[in-house]
Amino acid sequence: DAKTTQPNSMESNEEEPVHLPCNHSTISGTDYIHWYRQLPSQGPEYVIHGLTSNVNNRMASLAIAEDRKSSTLILHRATLRDAAVYYCILRDLIIQGAQKLVFGQGTRLTINP
Amino acid sequence: EPEVTQTPSHQVTQMGQEVILRCVPISNHLYFYWYRQILGQKVEFLVSFYNNEISEKSEIFDDQFSVERPDGSNFTLKIRSTKLEDSAMYFCASSGWDRGETQYFGPGTRLLVL
């Protein structure tokens, strides 16, 4: 499985933007970049995914570098409810069907009031 | 919004006992998964299941573990003879048919083996 590298922890203030980086220098051309998060005492939750272009949804934005070797998850206005561990995960586009998620340690995001 | 449900939320058992963890995936999903998370550690893949058979399993998923979709709606994980090291949070997930489809996770079952 292709690997991703994320900072262990980040801290931000409520109502400020948060940029969570992820390096994936060995990404292949067919890998999607997925982000999940895990709120305290809950199961992982899908946040966003993309392939080449930047993506936006109601939860976040995903900025993908032109060479696709890195990406940044952007929370535009963090709230206390965004405090979680954020995981950047690569998934192969070509593989059909059941495909496991390989979780790393992720980035533990702390939001200060 | 449809969601994955799991029962029980907590289970305490004695070492050597059998436990069955139950999950109801999202109704139109085709792919089903079990993951576990030992306290303070990473989420780890256990097994994936499609078309009534195991698609992939990890090294953790040994002969003590089995999965079943008994009635077209439930998806179960059975641990035949629990060990202390099986104590963990167990998450069920399901996904649809599209490539790159996201997985939806349940709230988990916290298993404690004494």
Overall description:
Chain A contains no helices and nine strands. Chain A has strands at residues 9-13, 18-23, 31-38, 45-50, 55-56, 61-64, 70-75, 84-92, 107-112. A five-stranded mixed beta sheet of chain A has the order 1-9-8-3-4, with no helix packed on it. The mean pLDDT of chain A is 93. Helices cover 0% and strands 46% of the residues of chain A. Chain A is globular and about 45 Å long. By secondary structure, chain A is an all-beta fold. Chain B is built from no helices and eleven strands. In chain B, strands 2, 4, 5, 6, 9, 10 and 11 form a seven-stranded mixed beta sheet that branches. A four-stranded antiparallel beta sheet of chain B has the order 1-3-8-7, with no helix packed on it. In chain B, strand 7 (65-68) and strand 8 form a beta hairpin. Chain B is mostly beta strands. The chains are: A mainly beta (113), B mainly beta (114). The A-B interface holds A 32, 34, 38, 42-46, 49, 51, 87, 91, 93-105 and B 4, 30-33, 35, 42-45, 48-50, 55-56, 58, 91, 93, 95, 97, 99-100, 102-108.
Give me the Rg of chain B, rounded. Answer: 13 Å
* β-sheet strand percentage of chain B: over 45%
Secondary structure: number of strands of chain B: 11
Q: In whole angstroms, how far apart are the ends of chain B?
A: 37 Å
Which terms would index this structure?
heterodimer, A: 113 residues, mainly beta, five-stranded mixed sheet, B: 114 residues, seven-stranded mixed sheet, four-stranded antiparallel sheet, 11 strands
Secondary-structure map:
The complex is a heterodimer of chains A (113) and B (114).
Chain A: E1 9-13, E2 18-23, E3 31-38, E4 45-50, E5 55-56, E6 61-64, E7 70-75, E8 84-92, E9 107-112
Chain B: E1 5-7, E2 10-13, E3 19-24, E4 31-37, E5 43-50, E6 53-57, E7 65-68, E8 75-79, E9 88-95, E10 104-105, E11 109-113
Parallel strand pairs in B: 2-11
Antiparallel strand pairs in B: 1-3, 3-8, 4-5, 4-9, 5-6, 7-8, 9-10, 9-11
